[in-house]
């Protein structure tokens, strides 16, 4: 078991999150205690010793609330309860207590942009009719056209198609995601008050922080007449760069920040203060606003996740990210995988410019990915990420080196993107396949029965059981890296080496801790220093391609 003594000291630090390693759990795919094929809270509790042994600081739970699973749990019917298929509030309390006993912080996902269409508020809105107070909690509008038969605007859903759905009485409601996820109206004071209650509810139960889903979309310009975008086919990123900052009708509006300043007062009323991190798909300078100390404090760094395996590109992204975080008074965040993207053990091996959806539709065969080479590159990327100043967010299973399951048969897909886009986009199921814990069994130890998404036979070789205690395994690399990181970490600065060869990233951290990553095609000389850890064997004192080494001086 990892020595938690230093973590126990840091757990009393209100700024523990600034350089924490946070492990994301997708509850339905982590561990199944009751054998129904769906992961649950008791399953997570039973496996928390894995996280303690891994050496992370905190766990982040993706939504576990009552949900019809129209969007993998992000369609929330009650943000202050537990889905009966996943457990009870007592089960949550037991999970949090065991996590805290092991020295682990607990972060929960909240989803303030929208609710489920099964939420009592939305059901009341459907019954109450146009102009009612119940409908004002959501965004209902009359349609255009002679008989109101056209959507109010040309706004498009992230999942494809119009962002408006018509109800039987003729009005339309806004859903930036699935139709089962109606957007809340954040101009309504009852909505704001209810989320204050939610923050206090979970904070009172001992939650240490919150991950805020779609943090940039809460506030919309609902002044009449509603504005068309004019080019609805543009992506979120394209739409944001095409108009003045803060002026998009429903993304990243300046008014959203007053909400988070209000939330920060609530979070700071606890001892220690509760942390928060924004999921905000906005350009770096705008993202930093969400991370200001009087708002959420941190924001996910998607530029880093989306960067290619290229030394110059990564150096620029790292430099810019650190500068933006510093300007905001925040710490930087780093992430390689999560529940929404192709796992980096596969993604980083694809040629630059690869259409990831086309690759998924090909079953991962066009182009094919060399899994062994993908492991090598993913391990190098991991050591690079863990050496950077700031917080690292680790997605469940990446410590096992899991690749994307790109060849899931279409008949088993669960992600609504597949149906919403008319079978054009395959969706995110390939990164959500349940974890393998053992080398045998109906679900490789995920539970006593099968799993809600099929696991490929190759998962047996990646199982915790197959890697535990095995020198050189990806699991043991993570454990060693996190143990070393805890000892070496100090300060939030780095200095780039001026004489690094082309294709090599080299920087120094505090106390002479040096990280060197070779992204070039050939081996390079290893700088002087004591080798503390290497992502792959060294080649006669040389650093091979796709390899990261940590050096001490």
UniProtKB/TrEMBL annotation:
Family to which this protein belongs: Belongs to the glycosyl hydrolase 13 family.
UniProt cross-references to Pfam families, sorted A to Z: Alpha-amylase
Protein name according to UniProt: Alpha-glucosidase
Molecular function (Gene Ontology), one example: alpha-amylase activity
Record keywords, A-Z: Glycoprotein
TM spans (from-to): none
Domain Glycosyl hydrolase family 13 catalytic: 24-432
Glycoprotein found in the keyword field: yes
Domain of life: Bacteria
UniProt-listed GO biological process terms: oligosaccharide catabolic process
